[in-house]
Amino acid sequence: MPKPTPIRDGFSATWRQPSIFFAELSWRWSFGGAAVLLGFLALYEYLHTLYVTRGDLLLLRTNHPALVSQALAHVFRGSGPRLVAATLVLVITLSILWIIIAALGRAAVLRALIARLAPDVTPAPRPLKPLFGLNFLRVALALAGLVGIFGSTIIAGFLTSPKTPRPGLVFLAFLALAGCVFLAWSTVNWYLSLGALFAVRDGKDTFAALDAATDLCRRRSGTVSGVSFGFGILHLVAFFIGTSIVAFPLSLANLLPPGFTFTLVAIVTLVYFALADWFYLARLAAYVSVVEWDHRPLEPAPQPMPPPTTRFEDDEPLFAALGSGAVPEPEPPAPEPPLAFPGAEPLPQS
Question: Among the ranges 4-18, 51-65, 277-291, which has the highest mean pLDDT value?
Answer without folding.
Answer: 277-291
